[in-house]
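Ticket #4471: structure output looks truncated?

Reporter: J.K.
Steps to reproduce: submitted the chain below (133 residues) through the standard prediction queue, then opened the result file.
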Amino acid sequence: MAAAASASGCRDIDSCRTLSNILLSSLATIFACVWTAVHRNIARPSRDRRSRILNIVDMAKVIVVTLLVPEWVLAWAARQFLVARLVARKLEDVRGDAQGAWMEKRGLASWPGDSKVASPSKKAKVPSGALRF
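Returned output as attached by the reporter:
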């Protein structure tokens, strides 16, 4: 019936899409796109009802801001990239220091670029303040 209505034109308002139907489907599509673009994979731990409500409120804030200022998502992604790169460098420095200390303790020598060194059986101690950013 819908194919017949669209082929012959819209003569009966009950068989055609109305403005409200078009707006509703458009808003649902925009909401679905924003939700998939900015949803968090890991929310804060929700042990009580208050923290679950805060999770929902935080997500609603993110969605509203994303709808109003889409450029914010680009800035958010750039900030996450820069912080992740900084943390990765600091972790690499700490790993190198721990590996060097472990090898010195055992009297081993390492070659530059050699990554085939056995890992220590005990966890390396991370200097306090090494991961502050």
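Triage note (M.O.): checked the attachment and the full token line is present. The two ends are 63 Å apart (CA to CA).
Status: closed, working as intended.
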